[in-house]
Specification:
The complex is a heterodimer of chains A (about 110) and B (about 525). Chain A is mainly α and about 110 residues long. Helix content of chain A is about 50%, strand content about 5%. Chain A has a two-stranded antiparallel ribbon. Chain B is globular, with a radius of gyration of 22 Å.
């Protein structure tokens, strides 16, 4: 069968996946069309509800890259602090890592028989 | 003598000739140099495809330089070959196809991308030399010849990383770092070659493979080659040159540098499978490669999440994706001597790892080109300064979505197919490894959601009101890569069956690699 990838434990066929996604999409679209018809463009319905607070400008509301996943990185500070420190940008450290890893691999290969 | 017999040499000769012609042609007309480079690499691509068809239908091919006949590997009753031989099996041509495609598309993308820069003739000359050296690393059957091509690749890469160095200092710094790291690795490779030559008096890899004993000296050579080639592939913790080099090189060069790193990865696999094979302690060396893979996957992706320079972020993802390849092939190596585990899941794990090399070259190439497109129009790589670019760069946005979905392993794109092979086979070796690989994929998706939101979504920013889509040649290159990603994702069976499986088997079946040169001795 075209597109059938045997994985050793099962199989994968992207064509079947695409057909299923299209079918589900069609069902979702049908259900959506059965929904509330009272929506009117360019009325109060268009405005976001932010608990009565004034709406900031569109340009000002864009969250920049540095602020995305702030919680994730803050929670993992214990992991990130040493990891970032390891990336010194110093060429001596780059060379040092090569020497350390080469020594480790040589020992492992040498003693493993 | 038919021209077809000389195709292995022509793959290299055509771009090499164009590399030396470029500065001359550049004196006459600078605009033509880019077209010359694209044409030369286009010919190489066609030759590579013809050779691939021949190898996959007839079997491995050899090309002996300087012999009466290109297939005369052992003239006058010699026991071992003495000439430089190109020895191309399914694995070699698999890598050759990646190099041919990526370098050709890189040259086409460059037509508009570096149009306004100085030193265009030198740029294309170096690009062609880089492509030649990558072909050489992948096609040669001589370990010293491999070292020579490795050096050419390093020199061309360093110069290309520094290409924008006349404008800013960072590219020069990145180039210098890459030069030092490459010099260390080249010296170490040369040292290992010296060990082999001193011990066995041969440099041909097939001849070496037939006599290698895994003596203490061979262990030292292996202990040098494995970490050094892993470093050139960008494996953690020797990866630190990668974000510097990838982020500072021009975008099409970064795409080619990814393929150049994969050529080193190929060399690593060639050494452990074709040279040593089951003479070495496969479990220990397999686990060393698996650990490189795990560290690369996890540290690569977690470092990527905190980056705000789009190319640096993508460079860390390149490290992370290399981890998948190391994991898949490492598992295959760990069970190489196990007659039950190898056919049950070892071969599938290797298929996943090797298939991921090609998939990665396509989607990471595409992603670096989209980053280049953003830089071309906005003049910045800082994600904090970008936003709302989907309003004005619609094609680039679509290409980015395709690339991001592929790298995150979302169906139906190509990344999913190779990752699925890795997950399911590696799970049977050690479930924890497979779970880590899946977590890394989720983090990859999270990271690219961040890039998508920062660069493309949101209102159109006032400073980018005038921004428009990139020139057609750049769009075309990204479109070709996108189409290939979708095709490989929809029909992965065609690629695995016709390209990946033969490549994996050519690594596993060492006797076929030695037999082609030594005549089955």
């Amino acid at each position: 069968m075209l597109g059938l990838l045997e994985t050793g434990s099962g199989f994968w066929n992207a064509l079947i996946w695409v057909i299923v996604v299209l079918l589900i999409g069609a069902i979702v679209y049908y259900i959506r069309n059965k929904g509330e018809q009272g929506y009117k463009k360019n009325t109060e319905q268009d405005k976001p509800f932010i608990s009565g607070n004034p709406e900031s400008s569109k340009e000002g509301s864009h969250v920049s890259a540095s602020h995305i996943y702030w919680g994730f990185t803050e929670a993992l500070r214990g992991y990130y602090n040493p990891l970032v420190k390891m990336h010194t940008g110093n060429l001596n450290d780059y060379s040092g890592w090569i020497v350390i890893i080469m020594a480790l691999v040589l020992i492992l290969v040498g003693v493993s028989g | 003598m038919k021209l077809m017999d000389h195709i292995p040499a022509l793959i290299i000769a055509v771009p090499l000739l164009a590399a030396f012609l470029s500065p001359v042609v550049g004196k006459i007309n600078k605009k033509v140099v880019g077209i010359l480079a694209a044409l030369a690499l286009g010919f190489s691509l066609i030759f590579t495809i013809i050779l691939a068809v021949k190898i996959l239908s007839v079997g491995p091919q050899v090309y002996v330089f300087g012999a009466k006949s290109p297939s005369l590997t052992l003239p006058s009753g010699l026991k071992f070959p003495i000439r430089i031989i190109f020895q191309i099996d399914a694995m070699g041509i698999f890598m050759g196809l990646i190099t041919a495609l990526v370098s050709f598309l890189g040259a086409v993308y460059s037509l508009a991308f570096i149009d306004k820069n100085n030193g265009i003739d030198k740029y294309y000359s170096l690009l062609l030399l880089l492509a030649v050296s990558m072909f050489g690393m992948e096609l040669t059957g001589d370990i010293f010849n491999f070292f020579v091509f490795l050096e050419i690749a390093s020199m061309a890469s360093v110069s290309l990383i520094c290409y924008k160095g006349t404008e800013r200092g960072e590219p020069v710094e990145a180039g210098f770092k890459y030069m030092v790291v490459s010099s260390i690795s080249a010296l170490m490779v040369l040292f290992a070659i010296g060990i082999f030559y001193g011990e066995y008096d041969v440099l041909n890899m097939a001849a070496l493979a037939s006599v290698i004993k895994y003596s203490q000296l061979d262990k030292i050579a292996l202990g040098i080659l494995v970490p050094v080639l892993a470093m050139k592939a960008g494996a953690v913790p020797m990866h630190m040159w990668t974000p510097d080099a990838y982020s500072e090189a021009p975008a099409p060069i970064t795409m080619i540098l990814v393929a150049a790193s994969q050529a080193s990865l190929y060399a690593l696999f060639r050494v452990v499978f074709s040279l040593y094979n089951i003479t070495l302690n496969t479990l220990v060396v397999g686990w060393i490669i698996i650990i490189f893979g795990l560290l690369s996957m996890f540290i690569g992706v977690t470092m990527a999440i905190i980056q705000k320079d789009i190319k640096r972020l993508m460079a860390y993802h390149a490290i992370s994706q290399t981890g998948y390849m190391l994991l898949g092939v490492g598992v295959g190596l760990a069970v190489l001597a196990n007659p039950i585990a190898l056919p049950e899941y070892g071969i599938t794990a290797m298929e996943g790892g090797i298939f991921h090399i090609m998939n990665h070259a396509l989607y990471k190439g595409l992603l670096f080109l989209t980053a280049g497109a953003l830089f071309y129009r906005t003049g910045t790589r800082d994600l904090d300064k970008m936003g709302g670019l989907a309003h004005s760069m619609k094609y680039t946005t679509i290409f980015f979505i395709i690339g991001a979905a592929a790298i995150a392993g979302l169906p139906p794109f190509n990344g999913f197919a190779s990752k699925l092979l890795i997950y399911e086979s590696v799970y049977r070796f050690n479930p924890l490894l497979s779970i880590i690989a899946m977590v890394v994929s989720i983090l990859t998706l999270a990271s690219f959601v961040k890039v998508f939101h920062s660069a493309f979504l949101g209102p159109q920013l006032p400073q980018f009101k005038e921004v428009k889509e990139v020139p057609q040649s750049m769009v075309l290159t990204m479109a070709v890569l996108s189409c290939l990603i979708i095709f490989f994702g929809l029909f992965p069976d065609l690629i695995v069956k016709n390209l990946v499986h033969p490549a994996v088997m050519s690594l596993i079946e060492q006797f076929k690699y030695t037999g082609i040169v030594l005549g089955g001795r």
